[in-house]
Task: structure prediction
Amino acid sequence: MTVLLALADVGPGVHLEESLTQAGLPARWDAAQVDGPRGGMNPSVVVLDADHLGARLGEVADAWRDHVAVPGLVALGTSAVARERAPLARMVLVSPAAPAETLLAAIREASKLRLATGMRWPILRVALGLPPAENGPAAWGLTLAAARSVDLEVPRAALRWHTQHYATGNARLDQIREERVLTVPEIETAKGLDGALTVQSYVKRGPLDPLQSARLLWALASFGAVDLTPEVRDVGAAPRRLVHELREHLRARVVRLERSTFYDVLEITPLAERDDIELAYRYVGRRYAPESLAQHDLGEVAATIKPMWELVERARAVLLDHAQRGRYHDWLRQNLRKLRTAWAVDAKDATLAQEAFARGGKALGDGDAHRAMSDLATACRYHAGHPEYEASLAWARYRVQVESGKDRVSSAVAERALVEGMLVGCRPWPRALVALSLLCLASGDPDSARWHLHVALAIDPNVPAAAQLAQRLGMRR
Result:
């Protein structure tokens, strides 16, 4: 094993060269290669200067992983940037002041796992004991055949960095299918690479057993035929869009419910009676209940589902029980200033907001956008943050802007963005989704209009405006 010390400063470089040599590891300090490979040596392990490279650490690490020697990599540094970038570059960070034994252990581990620190074509070929070759159809068959029996520790170690990442096949995967180098079970297993499953779910999916699925995924990712991304990529397809939106809703809801009230949990006002509470509970459940979300692979955000739903159950139980609700109101009066709330509004204000919203809705139906905007703005003033009020106001404001001569598309895009941001993390609100659908349609995005209408109609098929717009867009109900 030979070690290259790609360090910028002569002091640490010479010192570590002497320490490693005395420990029996051939080592050489070379400042000329601090910014990437420059030739002249095929090291087993490269120690990179993380403090010097900073944000470029990952870029230089990838350059070394493409090197013909495929060396193991260790990062040396103490800066905050180094601590942030080393894990992203899939490297262990060692302090220059650490004992020599610590650096030696990191070097040995990097050498051992050097073929599992990245999924790239050159690394794949070396790991399989195959000579360098062009990444193309002529080499795919033999490479895949060798990958089927590779030591499992190699793909397992490589994939462990990506267990919560989404696996999406790309155009190269289509080429590999066309070359017919995959077995029938592999073809069926590869169908799961639709971007809606994380790595840990994909390898368990079948029909291949998990060990063979891991080998296949490792090989295809090294071919460049599968993209592994922390977020869902390309949300044009419905399954990926749904997973993406659910992840966004869960993240936003965690923020929304921080220091909130039970009224915010169910998105109801203190005027709510038993039927209102139960309806809100069902609506929240349509999006956030564990049994609804269990059918989707939500990655790391799935950990938020259970505590979030326990809060929903608690809010429902307290607000349905007259005595508990009274005690909760007493507690709210003492603590409301410490909380963040959009729903624990004064009962009188909630009533005035409802009345103004009803007037605004009627004005919209009568075609009087200016009157509608005035009434809906009043509703939002009395109850700011109510999804239906805010979304309807955005639609009325858009119509007023168009009537005043402003550009239709740019006005719709701006109002649409406001509504989308306001609805994320909420329970589904059918009438708000209708307003959003209208803005999507006005902004030239009929697919998104249909998407939001589908959600609205699934929650409440009896919203007249939703049914009319769905018919206009040729949607089947």
Summary: The mean pLDDT is 94.
